Amino acid sequence: MTTPTANGTGGDSGAAGSSPGEGSAAGTTGSANDPGRAGGGHGDGEPPRPPRNTRGGNDDRDDDGHRKTDGADPASSSDSDDEFGYDVEGNRRLRAEAERGHRSLHGTIGMGDGSITVGGAVGTININAGRRVGPRAREVGAGTIARLRTVLVEFRAGLGVTTSRQELADQLRHSPVRLLVGPDGSGRTSLALCALADVLPEGAGVALFDPGTDPSRLTATSLRTGYGYVFDVTAAARRDGFDLLVDELTRLARFHRAWFVLTVDTTAGATVLIRGDAVRHEMPERADVLKILLHRQYACREDQIKGLPPSVFSALDGAPLRRVAQIAALVASALRDGSPADAYLDEQVRRHTAYLLADPLRGIPPEDLPRSAEAVRLFRRAFLVALAVCNDMPLDLVIRAANRLRDILTDGRPGMRVGTSFTEPTAALLEWVEASPIDRDGDDTPAGNAGRVRFRNPAMAGAVLDLVWDEHHLTQTALRHWLTELALVGAHGAEPEAVRVRAAQAVGRFATHDFDLIMAELVEPWIRRSRSGQRAAAWTVAAMIEYPLIADRAWEQVRRWSGQGDRWRTTALLVYATAPGASRTEEALELVRRTAAVPLRQNRQPLAFAMEVVYAVASAGGIEQVFDLLDQWVQEIEQVRERAIRLRLRLRGSYETQLRLRPPTVFYYAAGCLLYLASDDGPDDGTRWALDGHVGTDPHRREIHDELWRLLLTAPVLAALGWPLLRTWCMEADTRPQRAGATADLLIRLANHGELVKRLRFYADLWWADWRNSGGHPAAQNLINDIFGPMGAQ
User: Fold this and answer.
1) Are 152 and 187 within 8 A, CB to CB?
2) Cβ neighbours of residue 638 under 8 Å, at least 6 residues apart?
């Protein structure tokens, strides 16, 4: 038997290379007798270096001081580990940090995951989770529906009149398609989802189409039998032929035994022709909504609600329901902390922030002032701004950021260096900014959060940044310089990635004040500067997307970058790899598809980023669309294989041994994406479980899934990660017995591929011997023995 090399390429084939193209990439085939050739370009007898656990962000040497890799092929370069690196756990932690930063700047930090999260597209609750249904609709889970029913405040036209939700539910019982019209921000989407859940049969699903989806593009494959769908058709309602569109949707709904609620925004500014049977929904009284949310969602006492000051109700004027939900959360947080009910609202927080910045030493007796009083004032101001950026992060990171901001503001003058000595006690500093260590403020702190500090006032971080930008214009240049240093890898080294994310999110907040300036002075120079600048620019734009005021302009920039050069297209990829960016499933995967069409020799670095995009889309519930893309790539690889076979037949003889066909680019993309998806086995929302659930027992999907595994286990460089992943799955027979059957089935199907069976038996023998010698994993040993026979006899 021929011994495979470390990257899974054995000597018996263009073995690995023949899978995509009946030949292997030049310089990537290996053999047992020549292991130095495996993986391309390593020394004699040296195994190919496996990818580092990086996220591929700092891999060039522009201004970052890292290596450039333009023009290299990952299949033939010893530096390819930078491009194929992946770290699923690190990705999940970074997403959690980005979410923490988002909640910090939007005033909902510290309220727990059960608090209302606002979103511009879906009413008062931002529905981001759930499995995608069809091409563009995502399923809304039963838990989300239950929360919506708890907090939904229904409109009632008068005493004794049914609510708009009851009216809509009654109409849906008689017709599968109904119109729901009402003003923006009035909770139309939440109302529609709840009404559908009221009338659908037991076990039926409710799904939400992405904003901007053209209803005329729907086909039978877009729908599932027995589902209820919510669809915003405001744009279509302005055009002629809207009645015909509704009739066509009714036909589709009856054919699939499905339901549609078509929502129309009546504040869109155009005359909309509405059918007479449409359900009309109006904005509920905002004060009533506030009181109901305080009672239902936050369990405030009746006397607390009755004692709300007029300033709280003044803040509700003209607010959409998503803002009313924010105000309710802030009022509840203030009441919980024993503060006045309006203490955390915009006007009060801004006034308090201005008070702190005006004189940080106010209230301290003159005899107690330190000698370097002016230096202490400056450091306290810098610390306040640094905590606004790094709110809910470890104290040492906040202090380091504050020291750097102070140095920039003073141009490094030694007399102003305060903050690294005994001049400023930590307790006094935290008390002045009204911040508390999380692990000592009564919260149920998760592991790993020890040492974090945050403002007691959840609205403080955003208020500080807004005030500094609006009223302290002389600091703007220094702030831009400071945030650039925090967000990018440069002369001062690299901050932890979590700090870099927070700095980029702060820049996104500043864009709400001056979008054009931020794009011209920070974002676009970052993109031109370095790979870490492109990553920071992507985080910044992802933060912009969360602000309705500038979201459309931010998306416009991303679409423009998608059609430009490598740096800009890479930045667009990185935007789609974030949680906000992945919500545009169709756009994200289309850019990945276009990127995969570019040969890797000219376009090496986006491969790792495209893998991140696919993972992000799958994590956001788009596993069906992701699998369709992988299916398409597998078909393309099969076509290349067939052409290669025909070419070999024509070149029989001496030329046959010289034939080396480079695998198609999508070979690496398909294998890399499976590696990313199959590695995330999070307890509840891991993409591995979503992938397994989608493949199920469908014969075609299982065939594609097996082919993807075969590509991964034979891919140059990537195989060095694919085999250990398969080993980990085998070891799960001891820790997750319920998964043993699925892993055994996969091994059996892989063993049926002639080109894999030798290497599969070789690695199975190695694993079995290792487990036997260590005396561990008895179930995994039995699994190997059951499939390949008693391994000890070999």
Assistant:
1) yes
2) none
Residues of the chain with pLDDT under 70: 1-86, 108-136, 155-162, 268-276, 363-372, 412-424, 439-450, 490-494, 601-604, 648-663, 683-685, 791-794
Dihedral (CA of 224, 230, 235, 240) sign: positive
Query: Could you tell me the two tokens for 331?
Result: 């009022």
- DSSP letter at 137? E
> What is the SS3 assignment for 213?
coil
Q: Which residues pair with 346 in a beta bridge?
A: none
CB 163 within 8 A of CB 156: yes
Which residues lie below 8 Å from residue 274, measured CB to CB, with a gap of 6+?
A: 179, 181, 237, 264
> Cβ(9)–Cβ(38) under 8 Å?
yes
Dist CA 534 CA 574 (whole Å): 8
3-state secondary structure of 180: strand
Q: What string of DSSP letters covers 437-472?
A: EGGGTT--PPTT-TTEEEESSTTHHHHHHHHHHHH-
The upper half-sphere exposure of residue 286, i.e. CA atoms within 13 Å in the direction of its Cβ, equals 19
pLDDT at 323: 83
Q: What are phi and psi of 476, to 5 degrees?
A: -65, -40
pLDDT, tens digit (0-9, with 9 covering 90-100), for 521-576: 999 999 999 888 999 999 999 999 989 889 999 999 999 999 988 899 999 999 99
Residue 300 tokens, joined: 């405030």
The pLDDT tens digits of the residues spanning 81-93 come to 334 456 777 777 8
pTM of the full structure: 0.76
117's tokens: 């999260």
Please name the amino acid found at residue 599. Answer: P
Most distant CA pair in the chain: distance in Å? 98
How far is the C-alpha of 308 from the C-alpha of 685, rounded, in Å? Answer: 40
| Those residues with Cβ within 8 angstroms of residue 553's Cβ, 6 or more apart along the chain or in another chain | 515, 544
Contact 607, 597 (CB under 8 A): no
